[in-house]
Amino acid sequence: MRVRRVVTTRAGGRSTGPFARFNLSYGVGDDPAAVAANRRRLARELGVQGVVFLGQLHGTRVAVVDALPGPDEPDLPGTDGAATALPGVALAVLSADCVPVLLADPVAEVVGVAHAGRVGAAGGVVPETLAAMGRLGASAGNCEALLGPAVCGQDYEVPAAMRDEVEAVLPGSATRTRRGTPGLDLRVGLRRQLVELGVARIGVDPRCTVEDPDLYSHRRDGRNGSTGRLASVTWLDPTP
Ligand SMILES: [Zn+2]
């Protein structure tokens, strides 16, 4: 089976105002009917049986998905990672600056996703997701990873103490912003962590959510109001 990956943008949906137009999160104050329509469109365009979204609490809990949840079930409660071996069932991370991590072992035919914001990344959500994939037969050495669009190191300003705390557990993350202040580039730290875990094939989407107006960014748009969430999605495509 082929491993497929898709990252959405703001384009193509029914949401309006600050959520325009393809917001996929129910948790940001958007009209639920618009989100539902956007999610139905996503599943239809991908040609999958269903898309399973993480509940996302900035934690490290990972769910193994062994059945497609019903249409009225909530996003996987209490999870920031998921793994599955089910063909045609897509796993999705919602984000607007946090790092979406898409993982796949094409040999074992297992995929996984992680929502790696500062707290989850520092807490180890990515190794937890690889461990859950391992319980389905995946091995890190056969895994490939994609780090999706996220805030870049030049735009992610944090207090110096926070930068140092993250650097201590996710080495390589510390940066200096374009203003010369302490910053974080979580994708650099996560990339190094994946290499140390044995994942050799790692792709990084170069886009910065703050700089790219086609993407949602909480840092850019959410501080004084609301914004939407894009989805990074992966699945095993059973079509021959
Ligand atoms: Zn940037």
Question: Could you outline the blueprint of secondary structure elements for this entry?
Answer:
Elements: E1 2-7, H1 32-46, E2 50-53, E3 62-65, E4 81-84, E5 89-95, E6 99-105, E7 110-116, H2 118-123, H3 125-135, E8 144-147, H4 160-169, E9 174-176, E10 182-184, H5 186-196, E11 201-204, H6 218-222, E12 230-237
Parallel strand pairs: 2-5, 3-4, 8-11
Antiparallel strand pairs: 1-12, 4-7, 5-12, 6-7, 6-8, 9-10
Bound molecules: zinc ion (ZN).
Write a structural description.
- Helices cover 24% and strands 25% of the residues.
- The chain is α/β, with parallel strands linked by helices.
- It has one domain (2-235): CNF1/YfiH-like putative cysteine hydrolases (4-Layer Sandwich).
- β6 (99-105) and β7 (110-116) form a beta hairpin.
- The longest helix has 15 residues, at 32-46.
- It binds zinc ion (ZN).
- Residues 152, 154-155, 208, 210-211 line the site of zinc ion (ZN).
Name a few traits of the molecule:
alpha/beta; four-stranded mixed sheet; CNF1/YfiH-like putative cysteine hydrolases; 12 strands; single chain; binds zinc ion; 240 residues; 6 helices; six-stranded mixed sheet
